Amino acid sequence: MEMMVHGRRDEQYGQHHHLGLGLGLGLGLSLGVAGGAADETPPPQQLCGWNGAAGLFPSDRRTMMACHDVEMPLFLRGIDVNRTPVAETTTTVRRAPSCSDEEEPGASSSPNSTLSSLSGKRGAPSAATAAAGSDDEDSGGGSRKKLRLSKDQAAVLEDTFKEHNTLNPKQKAALARQLNLKPRQVEVWFQNRRARTKLKQTEVDCELLKRCCETLTDENRRLHRELQELRALKLAAAAPHHLYARVPPPTTLTMCPSCERIASTTHNSGAGKVVDAPARPVPTRPWPPAAAQRSSA
DNA sequence: CATCAGGACCCTTTTACGTCA
DNA sequence: AGTGACGTAAAAGGGTCCTGA
Fold it and tell me: Residue ranges of the Homeobox domain (predicted)?
């Protein structure tokens, strides 16, 4: 049952992500960034080259630290619960002064912890706050307290996320038990983590599209120039010789005999030399096209 | 077959916390 | 040392979708 649900979700959100992230791929870009794809569990929504966690996800200091710790044995033992930040460094998990009561390992320090026991439905805000108020009475008027996860907790979560970016209830419960967190906290962490992943991927896609757009703009500019030159050439060819001869051509147009491409080169010495432009039987197509003629007729 | 409850997830917003100037 | 701005992670709230009863 659990696995079924899981698979379904994957499928569902795979489609979802096609909408969200598909833009970079619609252009048929094979995102070359895909180098280290192995790192991140290719989520169902993996559409383009996954950049791997290395360069992407640890965008912030804290996550970075967590990722660096990844090598540590996966199942950390004696993980620092959210309380008693004994010898934490900068990422000390602080307990709110109000939350002086120590809950037993099962009940997390999260002020919202009561929420997780509300059978999953996160609605019922009033119930939540009410519960919170009753649970940690001294929480100061129901203001939720956020507790940073410890480095170790984050590392384990990161590791697990790399294996699979979603959790089935069993895994969630196990992880929560292992980390001494509420299942709800684990769930929220995974949600936020997925959101961060998606954001990063979107940024990468966006950057790629930007580059692609620049390339196309350049190409477009180049083609426009080429078109102008060709039009000028055509005009010159059509002009009567005596008129054309009076205007010293700023450039000399030459044609490659093999490929029949016309090249315009500045040629000072050959100023009076007029290229007999229509040497090439270029416009083989009638103008306007026959179809157009027919339709206009 | 229609309906409903339950569950999982996503998206957006809010809030608490940490850092820096 | 105190403070405000800012960035970020944790959490809330609301919505969608799917499944099973």
Answer: 140-200
